[in-house]
Write a structure and sequence with these properties.
The protein has six helices and two strands. With about 150 residues, it is mainly α. The chain folds into two domains: about 55 residues, Arc Repressor Mutant, subunit A; about 55 residues, no CATH class. A two-stranded antiparallel ribbon has the order 1-2. The termini are far apart. About 10% of the residues are buried.
Length: about 150
């Protein structure tokens, strides 16, 4: 067992929890009764020793994977840029019996929006408490003037 005051079962719960962050499934996989697993998982996550060991496991994983917020942000920016790439729309040409470009383009707006949302959340852009009030018009690149 690791350098913790946890029982083997609680340590196993922590190790299972950091796999998918599902308290109920982690409790079941750790050997707790399926019937009471949801309640037990919730109880375990309130214990300071359990929380501390979960944080330790997360730190170890972060170091193993060499994850930094910079690397995550760079990956999110890459996802955004790929989602914004225009892809030609093709349709079936019955005379030529093949797909042909119809002159229109599409992009993955949902993927781009999600990547921007995650970047914005990381940067604290959507926390209304910390956001300074804007006065006058706000200009967005490539968009018309927006007034509040």
């Amino acid at each position: 067992m690791a350098e913790t005051a946890l029982t083997d079962k609680k340590e196993r719960f922590c190790r299972e929890y950091v796999i998918d962050y599902n308290q109920t499934k982690a409790a079941i996989r750790a050997g707790y009764a399926e019937k009471s697993a949801a309640k037990k998982g919730c109880e375990l996550m309130k214990e300071q020793e359990v929380k501390a060991y979960v944080l330790q496991l997360q730190k170890e994983q972060k170091e193993r994977l060499m994850l930094t917020s910079d690397r995550v942000l760079i990956a999110l920016i890459d996802v955004y840029q790929k989602c914004m790439q225009a892809v030609p729309v093709e349709e079936w040409d019955y005379d030529l019996h093949t797909m042909v470009k119809n002159g229109e383009y599409q992009f993955d707006s949902k993927g781009a929006t999600k990547a921007l949302e995650m970047i914005g959340k990381h940067l604290g852009m959507f926390d209304r408490k910390e956001q300074a009030p804007t006065e006058g018009p706000v200009y967005l690149t490539g968009m018309d003037e927006i007034k509040e």
